[in-house]
Amino acid sequence: MKAKQYLDPSPEITKSLLKLNKRKDFFVLDKKLEVQLKKFPNSSFLHNLKGSSLSNQNRLEESLKSFNLALESAKKPEVILNNIGVNEIKLNRFEEAVQTFYQAINLNSSYAEAHFNLAQALRKLKRTEEAISSFEEAIQASPKYAKAFLYKALALKNIGNFKEATIACKQALSIRPGYGI
Description:
elongated; 10 helices
């Protein structure tokens, strides 16, 4: 009988890696990820975490490689695609980011963060009306998404719709008082 092969490390190791990421201890995290990736080379979780760590260190091209490796075996590819899109924005590849976020949304139409990030990429491309629509999709998917209300308000202000911008801003503040101040 063949031993069961696991794609991911144990929950204890996973938890310790996530702690390092949260503390932004990237040097130690990268070393531990290297060890774990030798044991679990097909782990979407590990490749995604490595991509996140590299992105946080502004090593964006390397990060994209890790995210693409994560995509190969991802249980939730929309999450990985969203991460790739965020990196594309950081690299000023806004058109690519838009396409990547659309791919994520096609896999999960209620993925609020992908709608929000799509809106951000569209704003960078000066496609403000489309961005507002994407902010609204994010809000529809997650009605308490204060950040989406706030950025929708900014987009509305940018097109001169001050009344609607004020309403969206008040909605953000009703969810998260003091937000954006």
